[in-house]
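anyone else get weird line breaks when pasting these?? whatever heres mine. first is seq + C-alpha cells for prot A
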Amino acid sequence: MEDVKIILSASWAALMLTYLLGDVLRIYSGDYKEGKIGGIQVTQNLWLGIAVLMVIPVVMFFLSLTLNNPVNRWANIIAAIFFLGFNLIGLPG
C-alpha cells in the first residue's frame, strides 16, 4: 500500500507543477494583462480563492502520505473529482 501512497503523492505534485507551468506559459505568451485574469479585474477575494485552490494539491501531496487507507482513499477521490470539475469548467469552448 505504501507504493500507492507514493504514486498518489507524486500525482498531486505533478498536478501542482502542471498548473505552475500553465501559469508561466500564459504569462510569456502575451495573454497576461497586469491586474487582470482572463479579462476580469483581480480583487483580494479572487486572489484568496486562487490561493486556496492552489494550496489543495500541496496539502493532498502531504495527506496522501500520512492518512490511513480508507480516509486517504476518500480524500483523494473527493479532491480529484473537485479538480476534474474545475478543469472541465476551464476548458476553452
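and prot B, same format (seq, then C-alpha cells)
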Amino acid sequence: MHEIAIAHDIISIIEETLISFPDRSLKTACVSIGEMVAVVPALLQHAYDSLISGTHLDGSKLEITIIPISAVCNSCQKTFGLSEYEFCCPACQSVHIKVKTGNELYVKELIVE
C-alpha cells in the first residue's frame, strides 16, 4: 500500500508551495498519476484525508486524474494505448516499443482561496 507514502509526498509538495502564499488556504490539489504507478484512487484519497485531518489542509480536496499508458513503436512509429499486460505494437506486432505516458506522478495544480 504505497498510497500512504504518495499522499505524504503530495502533502509535502503542497506545504512547500503554500509557504509562498501564507494568506491563502488550499481548496483543491489536482494530481495526475499514470496507470503504471498502480495507485488505487480510493486508497490515495483515504490516505490524503487521514494525513491532513486536524492540519491547516483539513477540508481540502484531492482531485485525481489517471493518465493512461501509451507507447510508440520503434519499428513502425505508430502511437497506441497499452494494456497492463500487452507490450507489443498492435500494427506490426513488434516488441520494440517505448512507453510515452503512464508512469507520471505529479501535482498539476493547487487551487487556493
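btw re prot B: The chain has a mean pLDDT of 96. The CA atoms of residues 72 and 79 lie 4 Å apart.
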